[in-house]
Amino acid sequence: MSVNKRRKYDRGEQESLYFDCYSDVSIHEEMISDKVRTNAYKLGILRNYAAIRGKVVLDVGAGTGILSIFCVQAGASKVYAVEASSICLQAVEVVKQNKMEDKIIVIKGTVETVELPEKVDVIVSEWMGYALMYESMLSSVIFARNKWLKEEGIILPSYAELFIAPIIDPTTEWRLDFWGKVKERYGVDMSCMEPFARKCIMNQEIAVNCVSGEDVLAHPVRFAELDLQVATKEEIGAIRGSFSFRCFGSDSMHAFSVWFTVAFPGEKPVLLSTSPFKEETHWKQAILYLSEAVQVIQDTEITGDIRMCPSEDNPRHLKIHMKYKVGEHESQEKTFRMGE
Ligand SMILES: C[S@@+](CC[C@H](N)C(=O)[O-])C[C@H]1O[C@@H](n2cnc3c(N)ncnc32)[C@H](O)[C@@H]1O
């Protein structure tokens, strides 16, 4: 049997792989069919019509152009729709189909390299990845803000928050029980697979899946917030926070879950939430597995620190380092990786 060593990509290759993903229709279908996401952007943009009407907008990572179109619907006089992947060709068609060619200028290129003829009053962007920071697109938005946004300009959405909670993962329980039940079905005892299955499941580090509100074991804690009008590259390059929970009852804790919200400003702010207590979005929730399940009871205290940063090998990937202590158990440290 030959062992395939995973090839390391250089930075240029990593970037072209990243933009290739956005050249396909599937990812745009997934995003636009996420009603929670797309309606929150629509409402967040339309409710900010007073700031957008007659103004110039930059759409960072315009994709198929839907947010640029919402901005024209809110009264923008001009939108620069900057998109690095070849999906921008479709954005040109969508703009034409909506008869907005006089207002929306689609520009192919990265926002870090394109030249605009003027500064803008508003920046709009949908930059959020899994656990908020996967894909690291926020750094492009901050670059664009620093270079192209007028002093008094606004950024939509303008605020982001990150949350964490301990959870039970019922799928893990089911998958661990499975090997003991094979004998009932097929007459072959495979229960010896259980420790191996446990190791594989608990080793998967970060998964992206739907967490049900009833599987959350304590009140969630907001561990970081970002004011996008002023956030710096340094700040987003190492997001730190701490948490302290008291568990609701007796259960097996398998993981921590991390999710985010972003908010559009205004008299009636619009909140786009990816919480397990709200309607599902395509971001679902990030699940950070402990090395082994821990039993908690009512009021078990869980404390710790979390640090999120881009991975060294590929800055589009995410590294989450946690130190945590569950009740009387020894304090643990674990690095979780997404995308590696
Ligand atoms: C999450 S999608 C959002 C697409 C679209 N705005 C929407 O809401 O449906 C992000 C888009 O930004 C593009 N993008 C990411 N980084 C970029 C950059 N630095 N410059 C230009 N486009 C970028 C990607 O190719 C992708 O199409």
From TrEMBL:
Write down the EC number: 2.1.1.319
Q: Which GO terms describe its molecular function?
A: histone H3R2 methyltransferase activity; protein-arginine omega-N asymmetric methyltransferase activity
Q: Which SUPFAM superfamilies match?
A: S-adenosyl-L-methionine-dependent methyltransferases
* Protein name, UniProt field: Protein arginine N-methyltransferase 6
Task: Please list the GO biological process terms of this entry.
Answer: DNA repair; methylation; negative regulation of DNA-templated transcription
Keyword Transcription among UniProt keywords: yes
A Pfam family annotated for this chain is PrmA
